[in-house]
Specification:
The chain is an alpha/beta fold. It folds into 2 domains: 197 residues, Rossmann fold (3-Layer(aba) Sandwich), CATH 3.40.50.450; 136 residues, Rossmann fold (3-Layer(aba) Sandwich). The chain has 11 helices and 15 strands. The protein has a 7-stranded mixed beta sheet with strand order 3-2-1-6-7-14-15, with helices on both faces. Helix 1 packs parallel to helix 9 and helix 7 crosses helix 8. The protein is elongated.
Length: 371
Amino acid sequence: MPAKKINPIKRIAISTGGGDAPGLNAVIRAATLSAIKRGWEVYGVLDGFNGLILPEQYPNGGLIPLTRERVRGITHLGGTILGTSNRNNPLKYPVPRPDGTIEEVDRSDEIVRGFGLHHIDALITVGGDGSLAIASVLAKKGLRLISVPKTIDNDLDKTDVTFGFETAVGFATECIDRLHSTAASHGRVMVVEVMGRYAGWIALHAGVAGSADAILIPERPYDIHKVVDKIREREAQGSKFTIVVVAEGATPMGGGVTVLEHEAGRAERLGGIGEKVAAEIHEISGKETRVVVLGHLLRGGSPTAFDRLIALRFGAAAVRGLEEGHEGVMVSLDPPHVKYVPIEEAKGRMKMVPMDSDTILTALDLGISFG
């Protein structure tokens, strides 16, 4: 979207929504310092958009001033100093009815009014696909904003990579490395479940880097018998243990995702695929099988240098974009540059693992099974 001349900015806000990811604090710091350099005031919205929807629940009214002092020394910290939420989607906000059922209400107008009451000229919203959908609605209602893409799953389209992904892959790989020795010592099958609702980027990259023997990803429904064939093939070659990495969104042929729970105002909660795969492997092969669910461990911890740099670049680019007159766009990494892509082109588009990609081909050449 081409930049256009609009009113000068004096005060901006920053919000972080959805699941946390290593690098969020780096975005906050870069955006804050870049804005202060331009003479702007900066405020942080607490807990996603809850600070604006439920200001009465916060002693400070749901917004906090972001100063040089408040963002000092936070680049290396995991999580977000503003708090976040993947519940209470403001477009489908859960409100209890008298009969005990839940009604989903659109509260986006309250967010727009809240920004007006606080004289906020523009918003930098940091989040994944759900946050992009919210940003799209807010932009259409006249809120001047720029989105920063964030997900450890690396499944957002229109950007080469998202921060947090490399940190998650690095930790998952270290865990797989550690499991090799215990699996070999006991002659077991180890099933490692990692995050990845719609795309298998973490499972693929960590699995290949960690020398897994089978990798199950959402892009390719698996046949559990082929996984067992791989286990038996390894035994015939003298290897009594096997490492299987599975993304939480992986599905068997003819089946669906494994869901733990459904809850109003948020996406269904996936989980349990590792246990399911392990039970089926044991039933078919008789092999002793154990499960390790890495889950939220992948979200925590200090971001890698790569993720810090991407996050800092995104935060600074968001402020530059606002200054240049961009709005309704998402910052996007298109190496070696950061560019601006209309949110309408980015939202609702998942970046899936191409089954003909070089990493997949490398895995196949290494003998890794995809079920």
